[in-house]
Each structure stands twice: as C-alpha cells, then as structure tokens.
Design brief:
Layout (H helix, E strand, L loop, with lengths): L9 H12 L4 H13 L4 H19 L6 H15 L14 H11 L8 H13 L7 H13 L1
Helix pairs in contact: 1-2, 1-3, 2-4, 3-4, 4-5
C-alpha cells in the first residue's frame, strides 16, 4: 500500500513513516526533520507542519502515538528553534542531535536545589493558597492525614 501525504511536507511524511518502521531509522528521521525545519522562518510554522504530518500519519497508519525517534527529533529541534539556536554550523552543515542537545542544555537555566527550609516554606505557601477550583478543605484534610501517618 503506497500512501502519500495529503498536506504538509513529503519529507516529513517520509521521515515519519521511516520512524514507524524501525527505531534504527532515528538518525534518518532526525536528518529529514532538521532539513525541513531549516526551511521554516519560525518555530510556529514548523510546529504547524509537524502537527499536520502527525495527523495524516495517525490517520493513514491507524496509530495513536508517533514513534520514539520522531518524538525525540521533534522535541530537540523545536526546543532549539524556540531558544533561537541555529540549526546549521559555521560550514553550513546541519547540526547533529547531540550537538543541538548540548546547546539547549547550555542555554537552559540551572535548577538550584532548595534547602529543607525553602521547600517547607514553598509547601506551606501552596497549602495556604489553594486555587479556587480545588477544594481547600479536602487538601487540608489530606495533608493532615498524611502528617499523622
């Protein structure tokens, strides 16, 4: 059965079908996806094309979720684009997945560990300021039961 995309990029469609067939196609899936991402002027247009391709693949192949290699490539490339990281190196070659992951990690703020006192204060503030759509009495009841355990 030869399926063709009804909308979106045939390169992305090909990458998606490869990722359905085998996890070993992860490199090829990433390479095709980054080539397509590079043609987009914004992360929003790329994300829209990704969504259209996923809808089509799910319909054509009756799958409920995209395969791991596809999801991984999508996550790395979209994160890089959102952070303004270029997808090509100084020589005009596409960056590899590991290189992009390193650049993403370098730009993300480092999470600092909370002291026990800071953590307790944070928990107390959350309990004291329960959102209106959550039953505050139930939260307090559950916390008390937990603490008495």
């Amino acid at each position: 059965m030869d399926k063709k995309p009804s909308g979106g990029s045939s390169i992305l469609y090909e990458a998606a079908t490869e990722s359905l067939v085998s996890d070993t196609s992860a490199t090829s899936t990433f390479e095709k996806m980054i080539q397509e991402a590079f043609t987009h002027s914004s992360v929003d247009t790329f994300t829209q094309e990704i969504k259209e391709t996923e809808r089509q693949i799910k319909k054509d192949f009756e799958v409920s979720a995209m395969p791991g290699p596809w999801r991984s490539a999508k996550s790395v490339i979209q994160s890089a684009m959102k952070l303004g990281i270029g997808l090509v190196d100084d020589n005009g070659s596409y960056l590899g997945k590991t290189a992009l992951q390193s650049k993403i990690k370098a730009l993300k703020p480092v999470k600092t560990e909370l002291t026990n006192e800071e953590y307790a204060t944070k928990v107390c503030n959350l309990i004291a300021n329960v959102p209106d759509d959550i039953d505050q009495e139930q939260v307090i009841k559950l916390v008390r039961a937990f603490l008495e355990f």
